[in-house]
């Protein structure tokens, strides 16, 4: 298919040189009506750097639009090094695994055929360390990069054992990550990878889970400090809807003994890309109520002891062994443990995209435990599933 064959009712969104999820959402929110039936094209032609969360975000968005028969296309980057990045990170395979449609069905423009005949020298240029796992040899790409990984419920049984197995792979990387991150060697696997995957497998109707990661050294060319980023996406029921269903059924979300772990949040709320309209301080000992707004339900999902079903509780063995107190082992501690490890221990950020909301948890400098910026996209349809991205700064970089 040639891009010039698209009719005049098409919408083409030109993406910037450095592409993040925030860039895509700003373009979408300001230029596209929700559920538009016009041909929607994401033009990546000028992109010189694409963050790994973007790849999974695009897959989630394409899966959503395909399920509703909404025409969606990609114009691939002009630069060969960016095309090579998409190839070596397994973007074509990840698209087909999650959506069931080949990437070539979405691509238009001059490089549409690139993935049908990719250069043979890519692997050599990107090849890096190789580590031994229980399942076999795993290759680390470039400077400790991993390619996209896709898991489907009909092939992998989504349960705590699945989350434990995947976390164990990252535990084998503990010494490597400890050399570049500020934090205990095994906490990344047990309190970030494991808790993110436990959160994913417990969402009703999840059929796909994807993981993508990237270690980026500081670069004057693209700006910003160095960081390690890992993203988790599941296509199951959203975090907010899952918790609200329990409230609507008359169940309490708070596993009451966990109330002793009190956490404070300085919360900003935005409508779209407007200025902050609400700023308030909230404490985690506030029990969610049926009449609460959805942004409060999303925030509460990270409170200690908040759960829609305590019977699904399964703490990681490493957390059991190293927990500072038994309260960390209570039901409903998963997203709190993840957020606390990423923000308080590693000094990083956590991004959650679910429903019509995007929340960013970051370190606080004013006496609170977390700063939280929550953005509501009021007119958009719900995001397909749950996307959690953890970004950790590199030690000394």
Tell me what you see in this structure.
With 397 residues, the protein is of the alpha/beta class. The chain has two domains: 1-119, 2-Layer Sandwich (Transcription Regulator spoIIAA), CATH 3.30.750; 137-397, no CATH class. The protein is built from twelve helices and 17 strands. The strands form four sheets. The chain has a nine-stranded mixed beta sheet with strand order 9-10-11-17-14-15-16-12-13, sandwiched between helices. A four-stranded parallel beta sheet has the order 1-3-5-6. A hairpin with a 1-residue loop joins strand 14 and strand 15. Helix 6 (160-171) runs antiparallel to helix 8. The relative contact order is 0.12.
Q: What is the structure about, briefly put?
A:
By secondary structure, the chain is α/β, with parallel strands linked by helices.
Provide the descriptors you would attach to this structure in a database record.
9-stranded mixed β-sheet, alpha/beta, 397 residues, 12 helices, 2 domains, 29% helix
SSE layout and pairing:
Layout: E1 11-14, E2 18-19, H1 21-31, E3 40-43, E4 49-50, H2 52-67, E5 72-75, H3 80-88, H4 91-99, E6 107-108, H5 122-126, E7 127-133, E8 136-141, E9 146-152, H6 160-171, H7 174-178, H8 187-201, E10 208-216, E11 227-234, H9 239-248, E12 264-271, E13 276-283, H10 294-300, H11 317-322, H12 334-345, E14 349-355, E15 357-363, E16 370-376, E17 383-393
Parallel strand pairs: 1-3, 2-4, 3-5, 5-6, 12-16
Antiparallel strand pairs: 7-8, 9-10, 10-11, 11-17, 12-13, 14-15, 14-17, 15-16
Helix pairs in contact: 2-4, 6-8, 8-12, 9-10
